Amino acid sequence: MTALFMVGCSANEEADSSKESEITEEAETGETQSESDNRHTSHQKGLKIGETGTVVSGTINDNRSYEITLNSVEYRDIVAGLEASEDTYAVVNITVTNTDDSAFNAKDIYGPAFGAEGELTATLNPVLFDHQDKVEEDILEEILEGEIAPGEEITGIHVFDIKQNDVYVFTIGGSGAQIITYAQWEVSDSEIEQ
Questions:
Q1: Of 62, 69, 161, 191, which residue is least crowded by CB atoms under 10 Å?
Q2: Are 182 and 173 in contact, with CB atoms under 8 Å apart?
Q3: What percent of the chain has pLDDT over 90?
Q4: How much of the chain is in helix, strand and coil states, percent to nearest 5?
Q5: SS3 of 61, please?
Q6: Mind listing the pLDDT tens digit for each residue in 161-189?
Q7: d(CA 96, CA 118)
Q8: Single pTM value for the model
Q9: DSSP letter at 176?
Q10: Is the dihedral of CA 59, 61, 63, 65 positive or negative?
Q11: Rounded to an integer, what distance in angstroms lies between the CA atom of residue 46 and that of residue 101?
């Protein structure tokens, strides 16, 4: 199972680095890509635990909008019966509110990342979903998933295998990613539950 986590992390890191090479002018300037759609707000940086950011992912013609509230972050030594391959796991609890016109599954939001600036790690949730038969059921009950109708919300976790640091970034998209509107939170080590 550890090998599966490592493969999952490696694949996600490659995907993240390829996304970073596809920088759009709008992402560099922080401006939105569509003036005609008022759901597209400016990128948000420096959000704190408890604050809500707006995310618009997809393309200009085919996108989904939602709000993300970062509720809490917790360190865990063991997740799904496995020790972290880095220093610890960061378990990030978020609430997703569907501000779009159609329903979508919460697990399909733009892939979150967490870690020290420049050392962001992709979520392990896809790996946990892909290997449900090999992980403990209790973690699956916590993971963010489920259909969200317009105007409704759902709460759950994303799991990250991280190096411990004094300050972290939790992000849904970023300046190097192909995303219309992204949100980033700053989290200090002292704010993380032990």
A1: 62
A2: yes
A3: 59
A4: 25, 40, 40
A5: coil
A6: 999 999 999 999 987 778 899 999 999 99
A7: 25
A8: 0.79
A9: T
A10: positive
A11: 28
